[in-house]
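G.,

No rush on this.
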Amino acid sequence: MKRYHMTVEEFDMMEIEEDHKFSEKYLKNKQLLLERIPTENHGWTGARIATAAAATVLVPTVVYAAGSWLGFFEGAWGNKGKENSTAYTETIEVEGVEKSQLHPAIEYEEPDIDYAEQKIAPSVQELPISIDLQGTTLTVNTVVRDALGNAVVEYTLERDGGILTGLNQLSNGRTKYGAVDNYTVDYSIHFACGLKEACSEYSYKDESRSTDSKWYCYAYIIYDEVMFKDHAKMIVQSLENRLKESTDEYYEYWRKDFESLNGKPFTKEDYAEWREGLKKDLEYWENPPMDDQGLIIDYSLFHNMEDREKENGSFSSEDHLVTVPLEEKRVETLSFASDTGRMIAEISPISLQCSVTSDSAPVSVIFKDGTEYIVEDSETLNYYNSLISGGKCQIMFNRLVKIEEIEKLVISGNELYLVK
């Protein structure tokens, strides 16, 4: 399982912006599909100068007839276009040393459409919106969240002549699309739901529906407030350190850094304005709002990519942040606990949250008919996304789980039963 971790040094490479400030009026206005979020970029980090976010136009489209979710259910949790695999060990050579690499078993199942219509469809929200990514059209069709805050988003990428080759990292493997490589990628995308820094996302391409020019994709988003609060603490620490090193006696040090990056003079007035921006950011992150921001689409557009290989060549980027308010419709969960009460779990048809702190813990769902869904063991990984944070583990299933038919959960050898 993946453990969330970021050092202060790594954070120093990120922009500190006010993109995360959303007005209460905006969040409460459910009649608006989108409202432009003004961005105040207070200045530069030691790494680079951030480009202000630009507005984007979202165009409503029609995707599904009401209540017709077959394609969504099958694509997000089904087995079409997905091949089951058995576990096997491969020997690879790393710097002259042979090492064994385990390829885990993966199994997919056909979803029970009647169950999906009953338990998932009432919480599915249709928002079809489109964003032009410099010739590639991103269309977000639907999103569904459970009571844990975890979400699944269905979206498409479409481009005449085929999706750019640099984006072909998005596949049935566990890699992420949108990396800046091959000098052909002109955008990157990240989805979040609830709070931008509280989410871990994994995207999957539905091979059964996709063509060269149009991809059907699903983002599996884990929401964790502890991760958001840890992120805020890291930002506060970084800002405090930066302010300590930003007194007048350090002006010449910062001036050389900023002028080399920005290519224009950096005056003492600029320096004072930059410090004031740091103070405003610090005030915000010491007590950040925890309001639900809905669906968040965080994307960047890259320019001049063809100049990267030239001598003194460089590229520029525009950072965008779009939020779409969501209705408070959630897929329900059930509570399970061990006899001692020391291990607890919440489970919905799409995800699981349990009190496990190890990097790898066997997890199984035992149903009343005696069948077993092995979520994870030493040789099996039947999930799309996972996260360990704050003393708990969250897992996004690769199938729909009929939670009413569960006899017990078995986690790290502990049996958990329904809390009545």
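When you get to it, here's the other one too:
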Amino acid sequence: MGWFTRHLIAWFVVALASVGYVAYVLHLEVPPALRPALESVAEVLARSARSVPTTRGGPTWVSVLWLTALILANNVRVELLSAAPFIGVVAYPLSLTVTAWVLRLVATARFGWRWMEVALEVLRMPHTYLELLAYSIVLVEGCVASYYLVRRGDIPEEHVRRYAVSLGVSLAVLTVAALVEAYEIVSQL
């Protein structure tokens, strides 16, 4: 089995494990100390969604592209943190945890007691799997880079090339995910 097949399997395993982790964290109560900060993040997200420009006939592609840019800007930050050797292993689960709690707060504020139903619906949407796959790609490659740094003290040139390609592939998948997510959001306005 070649390196690509091994890495591809690892990418999908990490992505699916991430979905399970988010579903688990959704069941946890948001810690009271973090609630005010996460509620302000949730409010900013809700305000951003409400500010999407629309026309009388409904959303336009301008609306979709505008929201895509906002979503992608946020997701690229998570991608880069997840890709960083050593840091990604800590940053990725923290990002998933915060995302799950913000999702819970947004869903609770908007749908009340039906928040879990709505939150689980988000986990079934295509953009969720695309985002988690994109993050998983760079996380796995960042972990491999970390392994090389610990084991050898440097990263082999062939892995540097693979690492760069994985960042590009991840960014392409994130762009598609942001476009899909923006379309899903705008079409529901």
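The helical segments are 3-26, 35-50, 61-83, 87-111, 115-123, 126-151, 157-187. The chain has a mean pLDDT of 88.

Enjoy the weekend,
O.
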